[in-house]
């Protein structure tokens, strides 16, 4: 794709997307850097263009337009102090709550802060007087149109949701700035925005009710920090779609017997099999909660590109890094459970998933008898838990849960810090969860994450607690062994393995915690069964990093073979 | 003082101070909130006022004025979008490097962000396009004029130092806004700014040469991270003023025999004695480096208010929290050592200090034989050190150095984190110092600070090191015992004592460090003398918090008694 073609597509998608979302007016101030978008605005059907030489006047004019029409108005100017001249009207719009889409053209990064003419620092230039600001990517590569239209979608949502206000989009362009006025633009990157603030509007309800009639549908449940309401269980039993339950969905625990076959807890493993993926392509997907941990699932969805992929997200920041969603419903997910749904059980599509899942757990059973790795050990833990909470660290532990935590009626809830996926502060978060729930809590954590927040143990000296900490000590950053760079021996251990040679019995002594260690599944089971004698019980499990990788892979290929036999 | 009087004084000091520093032009845009300053500008001698209704034009006009005159120009506007209209010209001034003092009047804090008219968020409103921004205090109380004039001083210095540029002062006013036009203003809060960028100008040289002729002079040396040059020692020997050497000045170690009587290492203790303070009032003070740790010293200077108090500080942020300095020389302190100075030794004033200091160390000797506290133990450490570096944590350890570290010819340098005085990260900083200096290092640290950065010990696993860590374990926040709230028993231990009951032998085990402990001076000395067998040697000294306070106080009263006998 030539630069000009990419540029033309980018700005066409830009204006097209805004019009799709109800923007009908743009106020343009002349300038060079904004040329591509200015042309696109002129060409765009459904967009009325106004011109005003002085950007300050332009912005105040747009404010009047937006105020009276009740619709968001786009402003477009070139780079430099042009942007600064918008400022007074932006401040007014912020406090008067008037929706503006302030688009400032900018120099490319290599011309910023080097004394180039009309190049000032435009990133976040309006500070706390816009509701949201973003610095968009340069129009250079393919595949960025979906990202662009989602950002525009977010901008309009942000500007028009209460309290309404201005939003700033900074758009860098590199020369040459001429677009191809003959080039057609076919929109295929739009995402539909349905549904209102807290409850669903009529359009969303109708749309969803139609969708729920489909047979080949998937319901994906991401992290939930509270138990699902009863309506959820009634809803999924009637719907009879496979429910792909993220480790943090908290619908793998406390599961009614009648719903057990609906909860697919093994999809992370199942979707590693090409064989299986081929036969379970969905027609419709609905997701609630953040994107699941599972990489095979996100790869599957990105490859399949379901015709309809609805995401419930109350924020204008749609969590959809692969840009696969087709519909964004900005409303609380509880609205979904309240929709009427015809009973379509038994659903043949769902049964395919249930059977594969059943087979998977048979393979796991045998695997656990033959092999020893962190996952096998983790399962020893998971199978014992009841009337308690389990906190897991990022990196490998959360993935072990994905692979080895089987749906259960037992009363157990899971927590992890997946907002930013840090390995810091997990010990302290576990103490916090326990303090809120006031029942036994278990922390399942790797050695590096534990080391990171060892200071958190001091909480046990300051307050009552009941925490069992299971440390998987593989002497370093286990997850890196799964990454491509692990093939390169040079520098690998220094940079990624970060072996510390530390053992944590001393930490236990220091904080007066009960300490046990284990190397086999039997030893680990015995350590778990050992009565708890202190507020904090620490079980250190010594494992082998390389072994973890090979046995994990063995499990997956074993399952694939079994599947082939069916 | 009535509100009107305070308001009048405040704005009079404001304009007076700017004129003193060479501002001769102000561009005023009419508005209500800026009324007090607008009147003060009109009344101010030496200030030419221009008026311009449109703030955008006003700012561009001021830009032209400043550009052509080469002098900083003041802008004054009311609250609200008036400020936002300055933005284009401010951006231009920032990149064109033109000095502007942008003064925006603001509502008082209780009218911000509550929907009051013309009240927008003006704090840091110009973002990264001003060199510096500050939100000034309301004109309400006495004693804030010195703070105000120093801030104005800093503003002008900042705007006019290379690269020059705009500076923003946000000034809140509460109604009523009328000032008393008859009220006279006598400036007595001005600080003189002398001297240029890196070297001294002629004015500074002449001024300093006169000053150095005085007998009753003090040279205060704050933190230095490199050894003083030879010129320093020659300079102070001729000058023969007492040199008050902060623990981090690094002129208490590596001291030539000939200079030993000049270095006053005991001033923190001496200046606790009212008797002594009465007889050593200085006529002149020169300080280099940041303000010393010693609270008695800063109280002494604030009470004495020396006629001339010169501070060398290369930054426009003058570090002078009590506003005692009379002259700010914004130049490198090495210029001072290069000035010619007549030999006035022996100086009777200096000898008073030397004798008192001598007496102090005699009292300390006896005290160390009779008592046992952290300071006494610290002296055991300090007296042994040679060819090494000593890192000390904030809070009590740095104060122990102030009280017990005696001037020595031995080769020892001291380091601490006093930029923000945090207790975090000290262990890691010590490893960093050792890695740079590549010779044995000692860390002298309290138990809380050690706990805070225990993770830092992992450095010993990653790189070569040679560190001895002395932990003063008094089970909690020792320094709080010296504060007034320690008299209030209720909640004190929970809130301030923060006892953890931790012992650190386990930490030593975990990180494979050599571990020794001590409770008496003899045991501690033996532990220090014990050969080092690991990269990290840890000596934990168990002390008693309450005892530390009482024996410290005993030392000071003992010294005062001895002084009375002379």
Lateral arrangement of strands in the main beta sheet of chain A:
7-13-12-11-8-9-10
Secondary-structure content class of chain A: alpha/beta
Strands of chain A, count: 19
Percent of residues in β-strands of chain A: 15-25%
Number of domains of chain A: 3
| Assigned CATH superfamily of the largest domain in chain A | Thiamin diphosphate (ThDP)-binding fold, Pyr/PP domains
Any idea of the CATH topology of the largest domain in chain A?
Answer: Rossmann fold
Catalytic activity (chains A, B): isochorismate + 2-oxoglutarate + H(+) = 5-enolpyruvoyl-6-hydroxy-2-succinyl-cyclohex-3-ene-1-carboxylate + CO2
Enzyme class (chains A, B): transferase
Cofactor (chains A, B): thiamine diphosphate; Mg(2+); Mn(2+)
Keywords (chains A, B): Magnesium, Manganese, Menaquinone biosynthesis, Metal-binding, Thiamine pyrophosphate, Transferase
What would you note in describing this structure?
2 copies of one chain form a homodimer. The mean pLDDT of chain A is 91. In chain A, the strands form 3 sheets. A 7-stranded parallel beta sheet of chain A has the order 7-13-12-11-8-9-10, sandwiched between helices. Chain A has a 6-stranded parallel beta sheet with strand order 2-1-3-4-6-5, sandwiched between helices. In chain A, helix 1 crosses helix 2 (35-43) and helix 13 crosses helix 22 (545-565). The first copy, chain A, is built from 22 helices and 19 strands. In chain A, helix 11 (295-304) links the parallel strand 11 (284-288) and strand 12. In chain A, 39% of the residues lie in helices and 16% in strands. The longest helix of chain A has 23 residues, at 348-370. Chain A folds into 3 domains: 3-187, Rossmann fold (3-Layer(aba) Sandwich); 193-349, TPP-binding domain (Rossmann fold); 371-557, Thiamin diphosphate (ThDP)-binding fold, Pyr/PP domains (Rossmann fold, 3-Layer(aba) Sandwich). Chain A starts with a helix and ends with a helix. Chain A is of the alpha/beta class. The radius of gyration of chain A is 27 Å and the shape is globular.
